[in-house]
Design goal:
With about 475 residues, this protein is α/β, with parallel strands linked by helices. It has 14 helices and 19 strands. The protein is globular and about 65 Å long.
């Protein structure tokens, strides 16, 4: 069995042989060189070739396409961006509505490409069920979020409250208090998408080199272990692996996402749970849970991961017993029938978190460097938007894509991105925040907790969450 299959359930399920493409050897020239064959790099290459087929585009990938977050995520193709409420808050209503329409259209844009290019990645668009579960404070929190969404100009067509009875028609959890449903999300098989995109851009004439780790980069030049590419434009598209290419690591930190997958579950079990149409779901705790029912009837379930001191990458894809146990506990609280089901796969991945806690799409015309990232774990859909946007920026075009508040024109990396605090501040801050979240969840999940204790735990967690903005 190829070692690449150990990366995740998704990579393990691929029917194709996981054999790396040839590495870059020697010197070559290109119009655009892209570092990283994940979603952002591949989408950028795809839209550049669609709009300017004559461009010479080279992609260099350290491992193989799908090795990074693009082959390890939870499979939520969202029509959203992390922190979009803050980014759009100051815009006039008409501009805000235009931005929302752009974001909400991401899943449909991807569906169009899948059909055009013949990529089968188990795409199912049935939205997200953001459930209030396990304790009543989740309902209070979700209703507050819904009010805030409506204040931004969104409507019931975008986000609507579901009663317990309405929720039960789609998803049956142990202690339901209601839910918010949004239609703007599809679930996918992540590895099928990234591998399909890689084959597609190759057919379009993009040169893709794997096992070609970048050792040095600068405007106009990318140097790998065995070769180099001189190009007019350089696109670093490495997200959580930015720490490997200075100075990007000063601005994007690798944070881990941790996921488990059960064995395929029998039809009788799913009849008790629901999710017949491929809906994504989560519950409204600060544990940041997310799940989906796969096409082969597994439960894939993830929760907030970790951060390693010094911004070190997580090299071990498998989870510890403690990490698996937390995820089993969380999905077991939602679905008691699943408390003892076999877990066949567990894995982690490195995602990129910017200091501003929202994505960025930057075009440095002076140095001819373009990058998109900082998706914060919501990159499956955001990377498509990033690829479309970078293509237009590189080609010098303007449109609704390029006039968004997350786009920075004529800005260098240092000018456009905030710098993370030095260690040990980052590690201490992260762990203090996470401990407050864990304490809140423990207190609120205990029905015997005194009201004052519940209030203090929630207040502290909310205060600490304020630093993540």
């Amino acid at each position: 069995m190829s070692a690449w299959r150990n990366v995740s359930l998704w990579m393990d399920q691929l029917e194709e042989p996981l054999i790396p493409r040839a590495p870059l050897v020697g010197a070559m020239e290109a119009d655009v060189v892209i570092i990283g064959a994940g979603y952002t790099g591949l989408w950028t290459a795809y839209y550049l070739k669609r709009q300017a087929p004559e461009l010479r585009i080279v992609i260099v990938e350290a491992e193989i396409s799908g090795f990074g977050a693009s082959g390890r995520n939870g499979g939520w193709l969202m029509g959203n961006l992390l922190g979009e409420d803050r980014l759009l808050a100051s815009l006039p209503l008409a501009a805000r509505q235009e931005s929302h329409q752009l974001l909400h259209g991401i899943p449909d844009e991807v569906a169009t490409v899948l059909q055009r290019e013949g990529i089968d990645c188990d795409y199912r668009k049935a939205g997200i069920l953001y459930t209030a579960a396990r304790y009543p404070e989740q309902e209070t929190s979700l209703r507050g979020q819904l009010r805030a969404l409506y204040e931004q100009g969104l409507t019931e067509a975008d986000y609507r409250w579901m009663s317990v009875n309405e929720l039960n028609e789609q998803l049956r959890i142990a202690t339901p208090y209601g839910a918010i449903h949004t239609p703007h999300c599809a679930t996918i098989h992540p590895a099928k998408l990234v591998r399909g995109l890689a084959r597609t851009v190759e057919r379009m004439g993009v040169q893709l080199f794997e096992k070609s780790r970048v050792r040095h980069w600068q405007p106009g030049l990318v140097r790998t272990e065995q070769g180099e590419v001189r190009a007019n434009w350089v696109v670093p598209a490495i997200e959580g692996y930015s720490v490997t290419l200075p100075p990007l690591g000063n601005h994007l930190l690798p944070v881990q996402s941790l996921i488990v997958a059960t064995a395929p579950l029998p039809a009788a079990t799913w009849a008790e749970i629901g999710l017949e149409r491929g809906q994504a779901f989560s519950e409204a705790s600060r544990q940041v849970t997310y799940g989906q029912r796969t096409k082969d009837d597994r439960l894939v379930f993830g929760a907030r991961g970790g951060y390693k001191f010094g911004g070190k990458l997580r090299a071990d894809a498998s989870l510890s017993d403690e990490e698996v146990a937390l995820r089993r506990y969380l999905f077991g609280e939602l679905f008691p029938i699943l408390k003892n089901v076999p877990i066949t796969h567990s894995w982690g991945g490195n995602l990129g978190m910017s200091r501003s806690f929202h994505p960025h799409m930057i075009c440095d015309r002076k140095n001819q460097v373009a990058l998109s990232g900082g998706y914060g774990g919501e990159g499956v859909g955001a990377s498509n938007l990033g690829g479309r946007t970078l293509a237009q920026l590189i080609l010098g075009e303007t449109s609704v894509l390029t006039r968004q508040p997350w786009v920075q024109l004529d800005s260098s990396i240092r000018q456009g991105l905030r710098t993370w605090e030095p260690e040990p501040c980052r590690w201490l801050g992260y762990n203090a925040i996470i401990k407050s979240f864990v304490n809140e969840d423990k207190v609120l999940a205990d029905p015997s907790s005194a009201p004052w204790k519940r209030s203090v735990a929630s207040g502290l967690a909310q205060f600490m969450e304020g630093f993540m903005k």
